[in-house]
Amino acid sequence: SPSDPDLVARARAAKEKLGDKVFVLGHHYQRDEVIQFADVTGDSFKLARDAAARPEAEYIVFCGVHFMAESADILTSDDQKVVLPDLAAGCSMADMATAEQVAECWDVLTEAGIAEQVVPVSYMNSSADIKAFTGKHGGTICTSSNAERALNWAFEQGEKVLFLPDQHLGRNTAVRDLGMSLEDCVVYNPHRPNGGLTAQELRAAKMILWRGHCSVHGRFSLDSVNDVRERIPGVNVLVHPECKHEVVAAADYVGSTEYIIKALEAAPAGSKWAIGTELNLVRRLANRFAAEDKEIVFLDKTVCFCSTMNRIDLPHLVWALESLAEGTLVNRIEVDKETEAFAKLALERMLALP
Ligand code: 13P
Ligand code: SF4
Predict the structure, then answer these.
(1) What is the 306 CA–ligand 2 centroid distance (Å)?
(2) What is the pLDDT of residues 142-151, one digit of tens each?
(3) Beta bridge partners of 296
(4) H or E element: which one contains 285?
(5) Do 110 and 76 reside in the same domain of the chain?
(6) What is the domain range of residue 11?
(7) Which of 22, 139, 196, 309 gives a 20 to 30 Å CA spacing to 157?
(8) Any idea of its EC number (predicted)?
(9) Are the C-beta atoms of residues 202 and 186 closer than 8 Å to each other?
């Protein structure tokens, strides 16, 4: 739907008043009405790097979700302030791993006598606490665009990986990219005693996957893939690696949001694509590429927007920008110093991956 012209004018005026003092980052899953005001757009990896590359901006307004804003705060200097236009924009996947649960898991691995062999690899979609745990135990962060490199690095440091919190990205990367078998992976369930695993199972596993998932991508199914192939002969199925393993295995291409955009840019005219990722992005791509005669459809019409990404809307963005323009700092995301130090270690290991 077209944005309210009054709000558009207000956002523009506030941004103009702030000038170089503000830098607006927009994740690819953001609404069109918000994306139009982003100074850069990107996947979570690109945005983390872009935030770190703006030392002159006093305010970083992060149009995305809470863990992204935390990561930006960790990677920017102390006098830069990161603002999340709606504090309720969380991520249900990141919430699936708490610091207490992960500490308990580490005790279980210690009891089983394997903690020393385990390198934690945590998906960007996790709280700063989990990133700090990862840094403290010699591990790295990864995103969906560098998970393969992160896992290869981790298996050079140790024999086993504890992958947090997205079981699907962990499994898909281990099996598709590293050539492991499904039997090399076990799932640690934080709601069961000892994660629901025996010490023997833990000792035999190479990949210990945390039982977390994305509530949006988890809804694409093998039926979604089969149905679209039947409906649109010759369609290319392109999905995000947060989808279930069976969906990824049945797809033609798999990659992060940035990869998805590049693949469609490179696609020949006349090609047909079914995309399995968040709806705001798919709609935007469908509109953008219609002019180039590329047919782009949503992989499954019953899957909805990411509700927390959608919390950042134009009214919230206008409120944040106008507040900053008037000199009032609102909705600052600030990670405490101790957490930040260890989390930064893990994020910097990611940024240094070959
Ligand atoms: P990417 O932007 O890394 O592809 O991740 C998708 C996502 O779910 C972010 O929340
Ligand atoms: Fe979290 Fe999934 Fe939404 Fe990304 S799409 S923010 S992983 S719930």
Answers:
(1) 6
(2) 999 999 999 9
(3) 273
(4) helix 279-290
(5) no
(6) 5-90+309-336
(7) 196
(8) 2.5.1.72
(9) yes
Q: What ligand is nearest to the CA atom of residue 305?
A: 2
Residue 317 pLDDT greater than 90, yes or no: yes
Q: pLDDT tens digits, residue range 22-56?
A: 999 999 999 999 999 999 999 988 998 898 888 88
Give the distance (Å) from ligand 1 centre to CA of residue 291.
Answer: 26
Using DSSP, state whether 66 is helix, strand or coil.
helix
Does 304 map to a domain? no
Pocket test for ligand 2, best of 214, 243, 279, 311 (most atoms within 8 A of CB): 214
Give the total number of structural domains in the chain: 3
pLDDT in tens, 68-106: 999 999 999 999 999 999 999 999 999 999 999 999 999
124 is known to lie in a ligand binding site: yes
Tell whether 82 and 101 lie within a shared domain.
no
Distance between CA atoms of residues 63 and 41, nearest Å: 9
* 292 C-alpha to ligand 2 centroid (Å): 29
- Same-domain status, 81 and 98: no
CA of 64 to the centre of ligand 2 (A): 10
